[in-house]
Amino acid sequence: xxxxxxxxxVAGKLRKERSLLPxxxxxxxxxxxxNIKDQLARYGIGIFGLGVIFxxxxxxxxxxxxxxPLFRSAAVTQGAVYAAxxxxxGVRTAQVASDRHNSLGVRLTDAGxxxxxxxxxxxxxxxxxxxxxxxxxxxxxARAEARSRTVAIGLDNxxxxxxxxxxxxxxxxxxxxxSGSLEYPVAVDGDPLLDVAGDGTAVRNLAVxxxxxxxxxxxxxxxxxxxxxxxxxxxxxxxGETTVERKQYELERPPSNAAITRMLLDGTNRSLLxxxxxxxxxxxxxxxxxxxxxxxxxRVMQDPNAAVTSMEYLLGSVSLIVGGSDGSVSQWFLVRxxxxxxxxxxxxxxxxHAAPVRAIAPEYARxxxxxxxxxxxxxxxxxxxxxxxxxxxxxxxxPRALSFGPRANALYAVGEDERLHRLIVRNxxxxxxxxxxxxxxxxxxxxxxxYVWQSSSAxxxxxxxxxxxxxxxxxxxxxxxxxxxxxxxxxxxxxYSAYFMSARLRGYVKxxxxxxxxxxxxxxxxxAGLWLAPFIENNLPAVASILLLMPLLMVAFGFIWTRLVSxxxxxxxxxxxxxxxxxxxxxxxxxxxxxxxxLLEVALFGGDARQWLTDVGITYDQRNALVVGIAMGFxxxxxxxxxxxDAIFNVPKHLTQGSLALGATPWQTMTRVVLLTASxxxxxxVMIGMGRAVGETMIVLMATGNSPIVNFNIFEGMRTLSxxxxxxxxxxxxxxxxFRILFLAALVLFVITFVMNTVAEIVRQRLRQKYSAL
Length: 774
What we know:
Blueprint: H1 2-5, H2 7-19, H3 23-67, E1 75-83, E2 93-98, E3 105-109, E4 113-117, E5 124-129, E6 138-143, E7 150-155, E8 159-172, E9 175-183, E10 193-195, E11 203-211, E12 214-221, E13 226-235, E14 242-251, E15 260-265, E16 271-276, E17 280-285, E18 293-299, E19 308-313, E20 320-324, E21 329-336, E22 342-350, E23 357-362, E24 368-373, E25 378-382, E26 387-392, E27 399-404, E28 410-415, E29 419-426, H4 434-438, E30 453-454, E31 465-466, H5 469-500, H6 503-515, H7 521-538, H8 540-564, H9 567-571, H10 582-605, H11 609-615, H12 625-649, H13 653-661, H14 666-695, H15 698-703, H16 721-728, H17 737-771
Antiparallel strand pairs: 1-29, 2-3, 3-4, 4-5, 6-7, 7-8, 8-9, 8-10, 11-12, 12-13, 13-14, 15-16, 16-17, 17-18, 19-20, 20-21, 21-22, 23-24, 24-25, 25-26, 27-28, 28-29, 30-31
Helix pairs in contact: 3-17, 5-12, 5-14, 6-12, 7-12, 8-10, 12-14, 13-14, 14-17, 16-17
């Protein structure tokens, strides 16, 4: 009972009993307990290490799972097949289209019927009749850009009818109901039949386009004349009344004598393209129709005997897709030459057909298109990625009409046998290809191929540009200049503070530098963007002076101190405190450089250093790589310094003392013993700092212009992978191509850092093995 009431006494009694044990048994107990602790530490560290690796694997798997759908191939499968809708026999199909939900389609015929039908069954739901005279025949037909839903029909009496079909949606009882409509956007005195020949000559070829400036019509007549008609709409500012003014012009024939096979007008009504049976395309500049003339003629067929059998503009009416009688499919658009004259330029080729190309169908909202040949084979292509995505050969006959659904998830084809094929298209990410990501691409409106990242624009006709090269180069550029600034300062500071500095001064310096690591990078980015960038721009001579004079004057001061100052004065400074003497030097150099900057700018750079750089061909942006290098360098220095300093300081003392005892100087000991022994740790510090610089987001986001350019000019900005993800991810539609490409960018960043760290670890292990014997 007394023992239970006195626990302290019990513990003391147990200790006394253990002390009475034989020495060998006591040591065995200690070894067993130490072994238990060693095993716990071993397995605990191993388990948590495996947990880290497992988490990294999960990150990789998640990123990869979001990226994989990008590379799934497109597919075209057969949907419904039925006789072309309508009770009329012997009538040929001119065009077929559908609404955005694929719930209502329209079939336009050469006889002037507009048949609205169910795409699932082919049942005619509504029928409208175009006002075509009974005693005339249709001799030409054309369609404008698919989004305008406008068609033109040419007649053998020299008249043209322009019609626009539509799909009206209403919601009744919680359900969507779609009905068809038909209108005539151009009429003269209420008559939609437009006389373009003037003398009853038949229309042989036709082109129509509906744009912001009105409707334009180009017609080739049977007697060889080429006529351009413009209907320009003008809205009164006061009354809001719209008036339509008709202007008609006659153009010269193309320089070749070959028969015209296809004509196209662009959306701005400034260009007319004419294809002929000789395999040529002729470009007419009709910005001033009265002076309209052929500006360029190009042979677009490689086979000298091939003819242009089909031509269509892609979305935006910039890129021209040409199909030939030899089965070739190619892309062309106008590129300005040195004289600012547009020239038809060959951009790329796509997978050819085995038979002549008979129809081309562009997508409504992307730069994709479908081609069909005389054998009924259909191919899906995408312009920017330069890919042929899928092939379908189930139609069996040459197509009379071919068109996409507005969402590009359905394709409608009517063959010569007047059977309508509704094809199901799965093509969610056609923009993706190796060339689109990593090679130069010739984009619309540019004079040459280039690396460009531009994921969005203000227009629906925009061509997305998803090159990852500018982002990857920007990431490397930002990290390079940050490391160029940080590594020398951090490592030299680590060498001095660990080996030459007094213990007391080291106790102040090391914690001060390490606490810099706690400074939020958003604060560094904020200061860099709003203070440092304008300061550098306004004091370029001062920055250059500091970079040149600071090291020179520090070396000069060291020479003066060691060679010209007496030993008595040097003895007054405690050993290891000499670095404190450099503080006034640093302050003085900085003050003098800034103070003399205006004078240097006037004397050496004509009063404006930035303009001087521009004059010599160097682009200068206010927020540039120099600003990022300094700001990110301050963020990286504490990491590199701390790890390097620990590695140098922890070099065994017997190595340094032995070196000094053998007569080596402290500097020889540092360079030939200490640095070699600490090199694995120093290398690890540099690579860890590099990893942080590569993945840094806020500094590069706030301190650069976020311009995705490909160069290493220190006076220009950049856009990095991490900053791009931070900027654009909130705006990307979940599951869309842009969204998944941002995940691909994250995966690229992950792989870069993983490879970098793996190589660093291999090098570190080899350094460790090489110098472990010291």
